[in-house]
Amino acid sequence: MPAAAGGRTFDCIIEAFQIVKLASPVVGVVGKMYVERGDVVHRGQIVGKLEDRVEAANLALAKAKALDEYNSGAIRAHLDFLRSRQARTEQLAQRNFVTKAARDEAISDTHVAEQQLAGADLSRRVAQIEVRHAQSLLDQKLLRSPVDGVVTEILLRPGEYRNEQSPILTIAQVNPLRVEVFVPTRYYGQIMPKMAATVMPEAPVGGTHPATVSIVDRVIDAASGTFGVRLLMPNGAREVPAGLKCKVRFG
Which of 219, 225, 229, 234 has minimal CB crowding within 10 Å? Predict the structure, then answer.
């Protein structure tokens, strides 16, 4: 009968849930950094940006074009006048006070102004699209944290160039933490996903912390006679740092 895993302790190591090497979708010179190593950041938080003066200027120009109503306003006022003139000309033509040519000219002038107004409205819609495009280009210069975590390393500083391969900073997600343990093969089948466990970090942290089995490897390492188990350990207060050795007890 195989030995029972419950009640026994196994060596383990506590790791960050994930390490993110934060980069940018575009290249450029780093403009500003708003965080330092050790700072706690939240998902979506702006932690820095690339130099963006050109993109900001283009956005301001696009917004000015989109808000410019002078051209369409002038055309609309002229169109109102032409429609009124056309209506009067129609009435006079019915009474034979104006020629057919004058009536046709009034109708033509109105149609031309209507097309000019449609073109002005189209230009405004294009300008609004240009605003969204310019805003997207500006947003690409921003560096946003994809996770809640802690800044562990600043790789590039303001003034340094970011190319296609270079990340700018590193963020570690430390809630939850991953706990990795290798268990002897004789305990295989006794440890299941969602099983509760207790993790005991080494000094100086110490204490006991609840965890839950998330992964049980289905491939056994014949050389070491072990199989891997991963647990997730809540760490909302970030009181347990990643990188500690620990002991784990299942059940």
Answer: 219
